[in-house]
Write a structure and sequence with these properties.
This protein has 423 residues and is α+β, with helices and mostly antiparallel strands. It has 15 helices and twelve strands.
Length: 423
């Protein structure tokens, strides 16, 4: 039986999810104006995580510093990342997909694979059911997706990257020569800038150019393993299965896939801080702690890598989780390979709801716990974006009353502003 795979990819996920929330509240659609997610406009710090089509026309790029983006587009409207919002929307669109597919594999927070093999009697027209899934997500959740249809995961993913947004595309084996081979070599899945330039130096400019090489020639240019893999991809070959997420002991995780590579350590650390903040807050909401912190990365070689560390004491403190995450990341990343995904997972969950204390109180930890509780409380009262951890939030958990006072003052100012607007 020929395989039938769908790849569902949210269009500009972070920006779309922020836009959908604002449209539902009666505000303007930020997808229609020059806008972006990430960073601080006033301080001109941070990086762009996602941008609108209107911002892209000004040359704004995902992964670039906010200051550079503002020079290109002074009227750019910036919004803080909200990973709790992203997690809710991610779960919602994947729940729609699970209504139609026997097996769903979460590939990242904003994309998943559906194995539709053998569903022909239920859904005789795969293109029609893909449209139905796409339209249901748009009409019920308020954001758009692309659906790629192919005979394996690679072809489905490549198809979903064709014209956007809100589209369905096919890329079956018999369509490879017509649809895949004419594309620039840089558009082949997993081909980064360095590989693209190496191939162009030997006059390989399209995916078809690479596909028509012998395997031996491809391996001589790119190395045995990498050359063989890219040659197979160029010919549309991929046997990897769609893997349904197995039920495991409950843990807490969050990951983010960037549209463009992360190549600077400070960029990665800023993202890790936001992830640690999000995942630890979810854990505190459930009144549990974790004995294990894990960090995962995906480089542009299409491979996931992860490290984990067992802790002597279970924790729910953002600063501790961030500190360990940074240490794991620095052990994991070579500092050179461009990154496409970063994630943090908290496992080995302690559900007793209590934290073991030593013979002597750790004043720094108590201050950090009080800060986390204060931030959680203020976010619950005034919204998830009322408090955003910045660069001055350090991993040595040297935090205290100063940060609590700053957090409370920001929330008071926001509440005062909201009251004025209501009046």
């Amino acid at each position: 039986m020929e395989r039938l795979i769908f790849h569902v990819d949210v269009n500009s996920a972070y920006l779309s999810w922020e836009a959908a929330k604002r449209v539902a509240a009666g505000e303007e659609d930020i997808r229609l104006i020059p806008s972006a997610i990430g960073g601080d406009r006033e301080k001109r710090t941070g990086i762009i995580l996602a941008k609108s089509i209107a911002a892209k026309k000004y040359g704004v790029k995902t992964g670039e510093p906010v200051g550079m983006a503002l020079r290109k587009c002074p009227e750019l409207v910036l919004y803080r990342p909200d990973f709790l919002l992203y997690q809710r929307n991610s779960a919602a669109f994947m729940a729609v997909c699970a209504k139609y597919a026997p097996v769903v594999e979460k590939y990242s927070i904003d994309e998943c694979f559906l194995d539709m093999t053998g569903t022909g009697r239920i859904y005789p027209d795969p293109i029609a059911i893909a449209h139905k899934i796409k339209d249901e997500i748009r009409d019920t959740l308020g954001f758009t997706v692309n659906v790629g249809i192919g005979s394996n995961k690679l072809l489905a993913k490549m198809a979903s990257d064709f014209e956007k947004p809100d589209k369905v595309h096919t890329l079956f084996s018999e369509e490879i020569e017509q649809k895949l081979w004419p594309l620039p070599i840089g558009e082949l899945f997993t081909v980064g800038h360095a590989t693209e330039e190496r191939l162009k130096r030997v006059c390989i400019r399209t995916i078809g150019d690479l596909a028509k090489l012998t395997q031996e020639d491809a391996m001589s240019i790119l190395g045995v393993k990498w050359g063989l893999q890219l040659h197979r991809f160029a010919n549309g070959m991929d046997e990897s299965p769609v893997l349904e997420e197995r039920e495991e002991a409950k843990g807490y995780s969050v990951s983010t896939t960037l549209e463009e590579d992360v190549v600077e350590k400070e960029q990665a650390k800023q993202i890790l801080l936001a992830l640690a903040d999000s995942v630890s807050a979810r854990m505190r909401t459930d009144h549990v702690n974790a004995f294990c912190v894990a960090v995962a990365i995906r480089a542009n070689d299409f491979k996931n890598r992860s490290h984990q560390r067992k802790l002597e004491e279970a924790t729910d403190i953002t600063a501790e989780i961030y500190r360990v995450a940074v240490e794991l990341f620095e052990e994991l990343w070579d500092g050179k390979t461009p990154l496409r995904l970063l994630g943090i997972a908290l496992n080995d969950i302690d559900r007793d709801g209590c934290v073991q204390q030593g013979l002597f109180s750790n004043e720094k930890k108590e201050k950090a716990r009080k800060l986390d509780r204060t931030v959680d409380s203020l976010r619950e009262r005034f919204g998830s974006k009322s408090i955003v951890l910045g660069a001055n939030y350090r991993s040595d958990i040297n935090v205290g009353k100063k940060y609590q006072a700053q957090a409370e003052e920001r929330a008071r100012q926001k509440a005062k502003s909201d009251n004025v607007n209501e009046e």
